[in-house]
Amino acid sequence: MRVGVLTGGSDCPGLNAVLRAVVRKGAQVYDDEFVGFRDGWRGVLRDETVPLDITAVRGTLPRGGTILGSTRTNPLLLDDGLDRVRGTLARHRLDALIVVGGTATLGVAARLADDHGVPLVGVPKTIDNDIPLTDRTVGFDTAVGVATATIDRLHTTAESHKRVLVVEVMGRSAGWIALHAGMAGGANCILIPERPFSVEKVCEWVESRFRATYAPIVVISDSALPESGEITLRHDVTPPPGADPRARLSGVGEWLGREIERRTGKEARTTVLGYVQRGGSPSPFDRWLGTRFGLHAIDAVHDGDWGTMTALQGNRIARVRLADATSTLKTVDPAQYEEASVFFG
Ligand code: F6P
């Protein structure tokens, strides 16, 4: 078969593991040929390709990012997007497409497969871990590792100066990174978008941690909101045509640090983790997960199981409908958040 492959949306560690496994199994077991599309759906729209064979994927397992490049381009936002996608697939005589992406990229894939008959399968990746029906997405474990290692470092400097250290992590609409890294790093409190927080309560926790002679670490998601509903967006950009129109986040951590200082009189500093969470080498788990997803994605192609996505369920790689996996977001379960709250304050 001739198979096109693209990686779309925010990059994350582990994408190359997926590509490597798809190509190795496809070429070795099924005698497939591959066409890599540059920069997500944009490469399909513009017919920009990258060589993708066993030589191209050799040595890429420990490499972060994606050898194909990535953008948030959504072809369905353009009037002629669908025709251009179809045109490119026909020009390359492709029998199938493998789409590695987050909710937005896979949402496009679901519509192309179900509404327009495009033969494709999806693989879920995002540091946010917010895709339903899979226990984990590729990239999440590495991001949690980076955030946890940072929290460990911040503990020592917070203790030396008796300061509050606020750590803003990514996650967009889901607090998974904050919850996992906050628990693993022994945070004084964890603030997530699913649960608007009381600044008063946060200040109480901070003060109680100082009374216990420890310096508090406050972990906050980039989309967490105070109960009053205020949030500071750092950027307000107009996206180019076809790009994802979502606002860029960040700022709530700085805002909270200032509020804590004002209300408690304690010195506070904010660290915004930002893109370090998405950069660098994938963790062993993400290499393992990306590899397994890649192996199962190429099997799904050969089974003609169009419109499906690989999913980790327990230790098993399952196939779920892309439409089901992209119709909603997987947010933090309130019961899991309650577990963590025992350590607040
Ligand atoms: O979706 C992954 C993510 O890293 C979010 O956690 C974050 O809010 C966003 O992407 C940042 O996106 P961009 O790369 O467009 O700045």
Automatic annotation (TrEMBL):
GO BP of this protein: canonical glycolysis; fructose 1,6-bisphosphate metabolic process; fructose 6-phosphate metabolic process
One Pfam family per UniProt: PFK
Subcellular location: Cytoplasm
Annotated catalytic residues: 128 (proton acceptor)
Span of domain Phosphofructokinase: 2-301
InterPro entries: ATP_PFK, ATP_PFK_prok-type, Phosphofructokinase_dom, Phosphofructokinase_III, PKF_sf
Pathways per UniProt: Carbohydrate degradation; glycolysis; D-glyceraldehyde 3-phosphate and glycerone phosphate from D-glucose: step 3/4
Gene3D superfamilies associated with the record: 3.40.50.450, Phosphofructokinase domain
Cofactor(s) the protein needs: Mg(2+)
Record-level Gene Ontology MF annotations: 6-phosphofructokinase activity; AMP binding; ATP binding; diphosphate-fructose-6-phosphate 1-phosphotransferase activity; fructose-6-phosphate binding; identical protein binding; metal ion binding; monosaccharide binding
Residues that coordinate or bind substrate: 126-128, 163, 170-172, 269, 275-278
UniProt GO cellular component terms: 6-phosphofructokinase complex
Enzyme class, broadest EC rank: transferase
UniProt keyword list: Cytoplasm, Glycolysis, Kinase, Magnesium, Metal-binding, Transferase
Main location (coarse class): cytoplasm
Function: Catalyzes the phosphorylation of D-fructose 6-phosphate to fructose 1,6-bisphosphate, the first committing step of glycolysis.
Subunit structure as annotated in this protein's UniProt entry: Homodimer or homotetramer.
Family named by the database record: Belongs to the phosphofructokinase type A (PFKA) family. Mixed-substrate PFK group III subfamily.
Record PANTHER family: ATP-DEPENDENT 6-PHOSPHOFRUCTOKINASE 3 (PTHR13697:SF52), PHOSPHOFRUCTOKINASE (PTHR13697)
NCBIfam families xrefs: PFK_mixed, PRK03202.1
Protein name: 6-phosphofructokinase
Protein source organism: Streptomyces taklimakanensis
